[in-house]
Amino acid sequence: MDDLTVVREFEADVAPLTDDARFAARARLRREIVRDGRPGALSRRLMLRVAVVGTATAAVAGGVVVAARHDGDGGADTSRMATMSAAELLHKAAARSRADSAGTPVPRDDQYVYTKMFITRTYVKGGKRRTWTDESWMSVDGSKPSRRQEHGKIHRDPPLGKHEVRWPPTEYAKLAEWPTDPDKLLDTLRMGLSANDKSAKASVGSDKVHEKPMSQDDIDGIAFANAVQFFVVPRIMPPGLEAATFEAVARIPGIRIDREAVDGLGRKGVAVSYPKFDFAFIFDARSYAYAGLRMKGSTADLVDGEFKHRDWYHEMRAREELGVVDRIGQRP
């Protein structure tokens, strides 16, 4: 799975893609990326093209994570959450991540990252509820076939090609090169873009290229979505990187907090999202540990060149288990 990024025109109610469309978007992205996955190895024009295509490919390995406001009953612990800001929460989550990171396995490139994900989907109309428990085995360096589940359906992904990379990377050695200083990491998540740089333009549309200068809001949206992407695609983070990710997001202006969230297992939580795009992290309301992701989606049909939305739903994703194994089918 490659980078998940956003541009200003991309609203939160964008239609989810079909499997064929997702595959085509991923193929296009892979054709574009022919060099090392480090931010400095990609041209700015290519990075912004990746930003647009990456948005379309978000669901390839875990689903588009567009957050929706949750109107459930039973909020978080109000005695502690009532006045806490999103930045304060993220710093507490970072501290919890550092405390929990002791003993985290160091994966070899020839191993697999195993994940067990519990998904709850509730349809807006009628309130019908569906659940899935998905298990996935993702090749650490992409050199082997991977097997993943999405809503119970098994997908078998081929190895990456000779010049194909993942962004952000999943290889432990490459992640170990990423900065754990929050300010430096935020610049990396922003892909080195600057609103003052006239070359920072967004390419919009699949057939026609329309370019317009990016605002700082656009670039901060890219940074937030890249941070979320660390959790959409399974990977083992080197010590300090997950914590630094939360601290980097805490530095993004405009991040917001939702104190009445729940995770996929129904546990009380608190969500952090970014305006307009609403990609959301969920953290445990009491321990501040990372709990999962939240999204809003729909089924969409292409009619006369326009998407017609139906069957809107809210979805919660809770990560139940993360580990390292030697082969597909093996569990930690």
In short:
The chain is of the alpha+beta class. Helix content is 26%, strand content 28%. The strands form 3 sheets. Strands 2-1-11-10-9-8-7 form a 7-stranded antiparallel beta sheet. Strands 3-4 form a two-stranded antiparallel ribbon. It has a two-stranded antiparallel ribbon with strand order 5-6.
Could you characterize the architecture of this molecule?
The structure is a single chain. The chain is α+β, with helices and mostly antiparallel strands and 332 residues long. 26% of the residues lie in helices and 28% in strands. The protein has 8 helices and 11 strands. It has a 7-stranded antiparallel β-sheet with strand order 2-1-11-10-9-8-7. A hairpin with a 2-residue loop joins strand 3 and strand 4. The longest helix has 17 residues. The protein starts with 18 loop residues before the first helix and ends in a 7-residue tail after the last strand. The N terminus is likely disordered.
